[in-house]
Amino acid sequence: MGFLLQVGILAAVAWPVVGQSRMTVVDVYLNGRDDSALFLWPGKVLASGLFEKIGVRVKWHDGERPAGRISFGIRTADCAPASATPNALASAQLGASGADITIYKDRMLPLPTQYRVLPDVVAGYVMAHELAHAMQGVARHSESGILRAQWSREDYTNMTLRKLAFTPRDVELIHLGLTGLVAGQGPKRAAETESGTLERPHLEMQ
Predict the structure, then answer these.
(1) b/e for 123-160, b at 16 or more Cβ within 10 A?
(2) Torsion over CA of 164, 165, 168 and 174, rounded to 10 degrees?
(3) How far apart are CA 134 and CA 72, in angstroms?
(4) Whether 4 contacts 14, CB under 8 Å
(5) Residue 99 or 198, more confident
(6) Alpha-carbon distances of 74 from 20, 31, 187, rounded to whole Å
(7) What is the dihedral of CA 102, 106, 111, 117, to 10 degrees?
(8) Which of 65, 79, 135, 172 has the fewest CB atoms below 10 angstroms from its CB?
(9) Is the pLDDT of residue 159 over 80?
(10) What is the value of pTM for the model shown?
């Protein structure tokens, strides 16, 4: 494991519509323990911007996450486990108060060279993708955009141009999931909305 990126939700409110500026505020605590902090930290500005566009404001902090808050965690692992599917970049364990995400470094490291994208761009989009899955709390992907199951070469080009975005359905489920967490429903609300099932305790993310 590399480092733990933990997210505490301060408030969940309706996402912005025309003429409305209220946002869901999320505190992010980065506790660096080795060189993994350097691995994902450069992508925080980009990840923040992607969520800002959909009404989720990420506030970044150094140090330990305060106790007693709903949270998500992101850890890095040097290698994907043998049980991981070939295209998976991460996995998550869901709980009533959030999720623990593990990002596989060996799956991420080749991407900048393979697709000629800066490492901070890859880090930002991967964090946005995985956090969005955890916020939704449901095993799903979109046909296009940030939550597409497997990014194409065109998608990586659009990342560089900052054009790859969440779909309207992605945005809806992110906010439903965050609202459900604050209401004590865990990932149930978004999961029921998308698939008719209650809760999926383990998600494999691509």
Answers:
(1) bbbbbbbbbbbbbbbbbbebeebbbbeebeeebbebbe
(2) 140
(3) 7
(4) no
(5) 99
(6) 31, 10, 17
(7) 70
(8) 79
(9) yes
(10) 0.81
Query: Is there a contact between 98 and 72 (Cβ–Cβ < 8 Å)?
Result: yes
- Mean pLDDT for the stretch of residues 26-52: 79
Q: What letter represents residue 115's amino acid?
A: Y
**Helical segments of 77-118, H only:** 105-108, 111-115
Residue 82: both structure tokens together: 């043998």
Nearest to 81 by CA among 109, 113, 58, 104: 104
Contact 19, 50 (CB under 8 A): no
CA distance 69 to 20: 27
